Amino acid sequence: MQDKAPTPGEIIKKARKSGPTPLSQYEFGQKWGKSQSTICKYENNEADPPGDLLIHCMNIITKESFVAPNIRVVTVDNLIEKTRKVLGSGDRAASRLALMTFLEEIETSTT
After folding, report:
1. What is the spatial distance between Cα 54 and Cα 46, in angstroms, rounded to a whole number?
2. Are 12 and 43 in contact (CB under 8 A)?
3. d(CA 85, CA 79)
4. How far apart are CA 8 and CA 43, in angstroms?
5. Which of these, 102, 72, 71, lies nearest to 84 by C-alpha position?
6. Cα dist from 66 to 9, 53, 70, 94, whole Å
7. Residues of the chain with pLDDT under 50
8. pLDDT of res. 2
9. Can you tell me the distance from the alpha carbon of 91 to that of 54, in angstroms, rounded to the nearest whole number?
10. Number of helices and strands (H, E) in the chain?
11. Which of 14, 29, 74, 75 is the most buried (most CB within 10 A)?
């Protein structure tokens, strides 16, 4: 029988309480520009937290505060932003080429 994967809320709560300095929901929210009630909703799985917050929390839990030099960390928000910039350039052929190059870079950096 496999262990159940933690929910996003469980990840956030554990990171908030087990970080270098345990924080209240209010203090944690202040660091992320969120209200205490928003952090509470994240922890109770009543709202979806942003991906970068979850990555940060997982790093706290696993104590991986470093990134290996050959690994690029890409969040969904980063990918969306880069894709919009590339596709917004007007030249569709150049946009496709740039997007394919970017995706290949991501694929090779994770293998």
Report:
1. 15
2. yes
3. 10
4. 7
5. 102
6. 23, 16, 12, 34
7. 1, 64-71
8. 55
9. 35
10. 6, 0
11. 29
